[in-house]
Amino acid sequence: MxxxxxxxxRRGFIASxxxxxxxxxxxxxxxxxxxxSPAATAQAVLKDAKGAKLVxxxxxxGPVPGRTRRMTSHALVSNGAIYVVDxxxxxxxxxxxxxxxxxxxxxxxxxxxxxxHNVEYxxxxxxxxxxxxPLSVRAYGPPPLKQMTDDYFRSMRTTxxxxxxxxxxxxxxxxxxxxxxxxGPVMQxxxxxxxxxxxxxxxxxxxxxxxxxxxxxxxxxSGDTTPVEAVAQLAKGADVLVxxxxxxxxxxxxxxxxxxxxxxVKFDAFMAHMNADHSPAEEVGRIAQEAGVKTLVLSHxxxxxxxxxxxxxxxxxxxxxxxxxxxxxxxTVV
Length: 334
What we know:
The structure is a single chain. By secondary structure, the protein is an alpha/beta fold. It has helices at 3-10, 27-31, 38-46, 91-97, 115-118, 121-130, 145-155, 157-167, 229-234, 248-260, 267-277, 281-291, 310-318; strands at 53-58, 73-78, 81-87, 105-109, 138-141, 176-179, 184-188, 192-198, 208-214, 218-221, 240-246, 295-302, 324-327, 332-333. The protein contains 13 helices and 14 strands. α13 links the parallel β12 (295-302) and β13 (324-327). α12 (281-291) crosses α13 (310-318). The termini are close together.
């Protein structure tokens, strides 16, 4: 990381991203924002950034709308190409607000099929097409991603055709999909090599972690998982590990409050699910330490509430990790 971005990260916020070639089609709406907004600040800070960059567009866990942190989504930028990882609700707006260009998107990667990771997959492709996303974009993820993609384009065919006729555009066709069914190599192009590892997120199978090896740095994503050796091995020696994290004391209090308000869940069943599927921040620190990464990014935060300070999140992970710890916010850039 640069010295400037390191300063921001220690405050839990590192501004947004953008390699200049990746800005363009969406720059105007983004610049129309309040100049002090996180997105606008991000653009200003990193407008001339060099090398591969990660922007966290959505950093909250679970299919819960209306929060400061949107659902999980990320963008990786290298040499003017953009790779999107997960498509939670809010991705399309956050992508545009960050000043990123749809016509720079090369690939979309889905870690697993839960709402907060795939609900905006189809809409992102649809709006992206309107905004100039190339039809050569590819998608990668667990089965049945190809069927899901084809079904979405089929369901929107009338809308696509009306728009293409009216705007004299090339008709939208379903994109190419590579289904990821096992750990190992996923894709390699002139910018990046992508590798997958199986993780533990029952009953969702398969669920994957991904590692992106660019020419200048490596960035790994845990996806949703309990603390597993597979993530430590996948992220071995990486510059950055983005790992989901729970803060259990706050989760217990939050859940009791939600149940008191009438949320239709049972405390014991919900906590059993969380413990069987997700990672306490302390254990995330252990995985990062074992992997030997330079920077640990805590994201997909549970609970994704603003009352938990960055210092609280950081202190939990720091019990087992001695490297830099970034607490993700929407528009954080590493």
